[in-house]
Write a structure and sequence with these properties.
The chain has 2 helices and 8 strands, in the order H-H-E-E-E-E-E-E-E-E. The protein has about 140 residues and is α/β, with parallel strands linked by helices. The protein folds into 2 domains: about 30 residues; about 90 residues, Immunoglobulin-like, CATH 2.60.40. A 4-stranded mixed beta sheet has the order 2-1-4-6, with no helix packed on it. Strands 3-8-7-5 form a 4-stranded mixed beta sheet, with no helix packed on it. The chain is elongated, with a radius of gyration of 22 Å. About 15% of the residues have low confidence.
């Protein structure tokens, strides 16, 4: 095999490997392991709305999104936190109203705010020495 042919074969092999790697990274849909486990996929690109009465708070890049909620208890009464970050979080009500188990990436935790009097409920997650704040306001609109 001459040098020019060998160079062409090498370039073709490199292109094939790069395209295969890109294809593996951008593959859409949940992994086979998630499908087999019956767990909900952790993707944020779902078009399905949350169930009736549920507001979703995403944990991503060390922040709650949204971090401050104002909900009407006639429409929404459950807040569901979804960990989309690589770190583990425990979400705690500031006055002990609720506490989640440790949430790994993809885990969810829900709390029913209709069990409490209307008010402002502050919560946080601790990551190392940092406290990530959030709040849920269930007071009727003024």
């Amino acid at each position: 095999m001459d040098r020019k042919t060998l160079s062409g074969v090498l370039v073709a092999a490199v292109v094939f490997v790069v395209l295969a790697a890109v294809g593996a990274v951008v593959r859409s849909g949940p992994s086979e392991a998630v499908v087999e486990s019956g767990r909900r996929p952790t993707t944020t690109s779902t078009t399905e709305p949350p169930p009736e009465g549920v507001v979703v708070v995403r944990i991503d890049n060390g922040a709650f999104r949204p971090s401050n909620l104002q909900i009407d208890l006639a429409e929404f009464w459950i807040v569901e936190w979804v960990n989309e970050d690589d770190r583990t979080y425990v979400i705690k009500g500031k006055k002990g109203e609720f506490e989640s188990p440790p949430l790994e990436k993809g885990d969810r935790f829900s709390f029913d705010f209709s069990t409490l009097e209307p008010g402002i409920y502050r919560y946080f997650a601790e990551v190392g020495l940092q406290r990530i704040p959030g709040s849920v306001d269930t007071r009727p609109s003024q």
